[in-house]
Amino acid sequence: MRGCHFVVKRLYTRPSFALIIYNVICHINKSGFVCHDPLDKDAIGPGAKKIPYISNEIQQKTMSMIYQGIPEENVLEKHIECIQQYCGSDVTFDTLASEYVRKLGMIIKRSTHELDRDDQASIRMWVERNKKSIFFYQDASEMDPFILGIQTEWQLQQMLIRLFGIKKLKYPLCTLLVFDSRHHALPVAWIITPSVVKSDMSKWTKALNTFCCPILFSLWRLRSSWLRNVVKKCSNIEVQREIFKRLGKIVYDTWDSVNTSVALEECIQDFVDQTAFVDYFRSSWMPKIEMWLLTLKSFPLASQEASGAIEAYHVKLKTKLSDDSHLGALLRVDWLVHKLTTELHSTYWLNRYADESNSFQNVKEEYIASTSWHRALQIPDSAVTLDDKYNLFAKVASLKGSSITHIVWNPGSEFGFCDCAWSMQGNFCKDVIKVNMMCDNDKACEPSMSSRSFREILMDLWKKPMEDSIILDESAAWSHQMLDQIKQLVELNSSNDIGIVVNNMPLKWISKKGRKFVGIPASFPALPSTSKSNLQEKNRKWKRLSRLR
Within the chain, how many helices (H) and strands (E) appear? Predict the structure, then answer.
């Protein structure tokens, strides 16, 4: 109606300011005021329409709540609270917000993963529409396999601040995980590809720049697979715990130069009557067990806390992917992409937001208690009773009732066997972790595998050949540095006053640019004085050189 057009942009670095861009540069009236603003008495029409500010964060929060099935009235309440932080309270805004939430809910409910009947064509269309969320894409051809790397803007942010196969899927799914401030596993990228050969994997690992940091090796996959199949294929619980204990001892003896092949063969012969498990182990693990154990010796071993976090992500992933009645969905890549980028992504976004903003208390509490490690921290020491005589088992009283007790066999080992329902499904239960926490403080118990792994790496550095003095010095320096860090962490955890610990730490210089002085230190030599005539002469020389350039 006014015949003019302008755009208002909120400045990212200065959120309290706005930038107004006019199509016509001179857009003022005779009085010098901006045309059509409240001071322009000659303006005609109903006036500019006010629209509430909805940032990407507000939109993502609203979408996450809708995807998680939170009732619409609760979503609207939180949505209006977020808008009022920027725009204040306004009845008109509340009406527009209600309309926005309702329309967004309808869009999400009507959205579908199937953009085309052909799965490959559907994926191409999704990639074209979501280029900002793709860090690597390679279409399938006669020479190259299909590779799709997904990383949203929020996932990239989480990766900058801070690999699983799923059966029955059309292609294996790999997840890049980082650990947040609570040591929970956070997915920061997903990779979908049928190829696991080194040449193809290096393409997306280089695109992510993944391995420019220390690498830890986790035994979670091996432990989970062995425990699940022991329980599934052996009916007797005593046989189950003995097989699992023997397998754990074989892994633990890796650092003692024990012949793994001979030990495995002896184990199989001792339980030869368990044909179902023996057949599974021979076909699935014998061809690659040497590779696993060699890797175990080559890298530091991740702790039980890391294993619990990885398991929590895996459980949540399986729950989201299995909770779908769509027939044949698992065989379509577009369905998998849709599930990852909507429901699973929204779950983790809302979890992190609830934790950081201290809102959605039920979501926050569920998120904190999602790992077995954090659930183990809730078990008091008084609930654990260790077998004093032979240290064969431990009893853990359930928090649900003192009459319920779980027995953990092989206490102190990552291959502890518990008779609780969660453990019998092949999971790393809180009872095993709690018992192992207690055993870590008992000198009579063997150290954990992660402690043993770390100690072996230190000893390996220490045993470098004497004739190579440079490598020896470097190894000694690394060893002492790691030991100092461990001592500081132990002191920090056991101290009630962090100030005492900080004061005892050695002085650490920051970078040269970050150093600031009040005045000139007395120990520094004075700078030579420069006369005014010398400065003028230098300026003239600089101007002449500039003209020549």
Answer: 22, 10
